[in-house]
Each structure stands twice: as structure tokens, then as C-alpha cells.
What we know:
By secondary structure, this protein is mainly β. The protein has one domain (8-388): Methylamine Dehydrogenase, Chain H. Helix content is 6%, strand content 48%. The protein contains two helices and 28 strands. The chain has helices at 8-22, 26-32, and strands spanning 40-46, 59-64, 71-77, 83-88, 94-99, 104-110, 117-124, 130-135, 141-146, 151-156, 168-171, 192-193, 199-204, 209-216, 221-231, 238-243, 249-254, 259-265, 272-279, 290-297, 300-306, 310-316, 322-329, 335-340, 346-351, 356-362, 369-377, 381-388. The strands form seven sheets. A four-stranded antiparallel β-sheet has the order 3-2-1-28, with no helix packed on it. A hairpin with a 4-residue loop joins β5 and β6.
Amino acid sequence: MANRKFDKLLASAAAMLTAAFLGAQTGPAAAQTPSETSAIYAYVGSFTTAQRKAHGDGIHVYRVDPATGDWTHVQHIGDLVNPSFLALSPDQRFLYSVHGDEDYATAFALDPATGQARLLNRAATGGKNGVHDAVDPSGKFLVVANYASGSVAVLPIAPDGSLKDQHQVVQLPGEPGPHKVEQVSSHPHDIVFDPSGRFVLVPDKGLDRVFVFRFDGATGRLDPTEQGSVKTRPGAGPRHLAFNPTSPIVWVLNELDSTIATYSFDTQNGALKPLQVMSTLPDEFTGYSTAAEIAVKSGTVYASNRGDDSVAWFKVFPNGTLKIFGWQHTLGKTPRFIGLDPAMRNLYAANEQSDTVVTLAIDQLTAKPVPNGKIIHNASPVTIVFAGGK
């Protein structure tokens, strides 16, 4: 039975698996490490409304010291309603936010010297409660998942980084899952471009499906693939997903049943094929918990649990399947978001109900995320993106 205590034998096994599966981990990781003088900025979004039982106040900007990992507050951007998920343009000149329970997205211009953000405009998403957004590789289009409306929207981006109203809205078809509260209709919860930028994947928590669309980079339009979508287990509630950076593998984090599913991905036609499903919770956990966020470092997958309030970490086998290695408490309640810094040295857990962002240093031998004592106090944090450091 897996548990939270790792003895010397498990540490030795971790070392061997790391060497076997990752090769010389110091190679690619070192190549991504920023210089000691590189400026890194963290943008933290929050929930702000009483409906969300929140007390956040917008977006906060921090400078992250690449040598020490210390965060210094740079800017507060107020007068925003639930800036609940943030996305950067590929050139990191612009920042985009969707807003929980609202029907628009917002654009900001970023100053690379100071990290400060300047409001550009906002534009209609054609649906309610945008929960996730992503910019296409060309930087010309923003794609948004409208959770409450069961749709995906495409918004053109002007040369100055500002947004235009959506020019396409795609409804997601299918039968709702069995959960009588969380699955009454379509609820797309994520938008992810494949590494080529030719496909867009959308996990739908309400329909127990993962949709795949072809994306036309010239026109900014979505069209279903031949497969269209793949079913998950009934009641799984697929929430977020991530690609393996080294092979055509997709990991889907299922919110409602706290599982992570591995799929092979056909890079020619966008088809998904299930390979494995694993729990994100310890065997001994018997309470209520839902999975929230997924993050990937070469050879390792991390998933956050709200209820168990932990980060599970998995080692990746050569075929993309996973092996659980352990759990780390996030030192707070409801880690809605986890994310890695640009150097892959630290994993950050945004504890929504504890008003903290906790730094978990990545052990270079085992990939275990270990608290290092650095805690940032930020009201109702729910999303983080990093600019710079590359």
C-alpha cells in the first residue's frame, strides 16, 4: 500500500527510476535554468466575489528572484471580477484573463523591464463563466472554454495585443454524466493546444468527454476531428490535461473521481486512445476530495487534490503510463492551482481557501515537491503564470 512515508529503499528506487526514465536529468533541466540575473515575474489571479466565497482583489504581480526564489510584490491590478485563469502570448508581451461567472476576456500589455501590466481592453467570449484560455502559437487568437454555456470560443487578437469579440463559438454535444449536481450539462474546463498547434483539446467535465478539434491557424477556426471526442469513465469529470513534452502522450486529470488517465495521441488525426487510469489519492484517504490541477516536468507528473489538500507525484514510464510515488501536503486548504517555475526548480501550490501560495522545492533526485518555508500571502489565489526566465 502506498503511503506518505518514504524510507531509504523507496528513495533508492526513486533514484533508479529517475535514471532509467529520465536519463541525465541535469541535461534538459539545466538548459532551461535561467541565469542568476534573469528577471522572472509571477502573475497571480484570484476569485473576488461573494458568490465564490472569496475575498481576492484582482491580479497581483511579483518579481521572483531566480537565485533565492523570493517573491517581491510589484503591482496590484484591481477592479477586476474573478480573474480566474491567466494565459501569456507566446512572446510574453501580453497577458490574457478570463473571468469566472462573466462573459468576457481581458487583455493586458506587459512591460518586460518591470513586469507591470497595462490594461488594453476586454472582449466578448460568447458564453458565460470562462474558466480557461489559451493563445495559439502564432499569437493571433485566444481560445476560451465557457464552462456555464458549454461552448468554446475563438477571439482574434489585434497586432497591439488587444482582443476582438469572438468570431466563432462551438457548442459541445453529448449526454451529461451521472453526477446530479456537477454534470447537468456540458462544462468544458480546459483548452490545450497540442505541441504542433494544429489541434485543440477540451476536457468536458459535464459530459465525461475529451473533445479534439483541428485548428486552422490562418483563419482561427475550430473543426471537429474524425474521432470528435473520447469518453471517460462515467462520473469521472475530466477537468484539465497536459501533454508529455517528449512523446505523443496526454494525461487527463479527472476532477470528480480523483483519477488521472493516460492516453496515446495520434499526431496525424488527433485521435486519443486510453492506456491507463490511476487514483490521485492515497489508499488510506476516506474523505471527500476532488482533483484540480496538473503540472508536468520531464519524467514526472504532478496533480493537486482539494480535500486531501495534497500534491500527488507520478513517475513516467517510457510508454507514458504512470507509477505513483507519493503525496505532499500543500500546507493549506484547497490547492486549486499548481504550477512550475520556468526553471522547473519549484512547484507552487495556490491554496484558495488559505490565501497562500506555498513553494515546494523539487528534489532533484526523487522529484518530490518539498516545502522550503517560502509562503506568499495572496487572497483567494486560483491561477499563476510566469514570464521571463527563459
